[in-house]
Design a protein that fits this description.
156 residues, Beta-Lactamase, globular, single chain, alpha+beta, 5 helices, 6-stranded antiparallel sheet
């Protein structure tokens, strides 16, 4: 486990943007919003469901993954946050992944996603019932995309 990554000021700020944007698009909270931003960043990092996001680079890099995401993709925080988002899918599934991300970009969020992903060690899993949303800054400009899910099935 990464020691107290949620206390990093950039992680605290990004956590607030994730939570605010989720509520903006869905009209509900991703988790109970109690306590201060550090407490909320801690709760998000230790939540029992996957939360992962990427920025807006030409080849977007993952910029956040909570503890469940780190364990699922079998990576450290440092490795995950240096990984191009597209590499979480196998080459044969990347067109479908890009289509799904475009649907979320256009609509603000998409709550019907499922798809095959791959861990850092090559293990494959099917993501089920994922919700993808656009991450917005304080001016409501899109600055990334995020996903959350709590169901996945390991594939042979």
């Amino acid at each position: 486990m990464v020691p107290q990554i949620w206390t990093d000021p950039d992680t605290i700020e990004w956590s607030q943007l994730l939570l605010n944007s989720f509520c903006h698009w869905t009209g509900r909270e991703l988790l109970e919003r109690v306590g201060d931003p550090v407490y909320q960043a801690h709760a998000l990092f230790l939540s029992p469901f996957v939360v992962v996001s990427h920025g807006m680079e030409e080849d977007p890099l993952i910029n956040y993954g909570n503890q469940v995401a780190l364990e699922l993709w079998e990576m450290t925080w440092e490795d995950l946050t240096r990984t191009p988002s597209r590499l979480t899918a196998e080459p044969t599934n990347r067109a479908e992944r890009e289509w799904m991300l475009e649907q979320a970009r256009t609509r603000g969020y998409l709550d019907t996603y499922q798809g095959v992903r791959v861990t850092s060690t090559g293990r494959r899993f099917l993501v089920e019932n994922a919700l993808i949303w656009n991450v917005l800054d304080a001016e409501r400009q899109r600055i990334g995309q995020a996903a959350t899910f709590m169901q996945w099935t390991w594939l042979p």
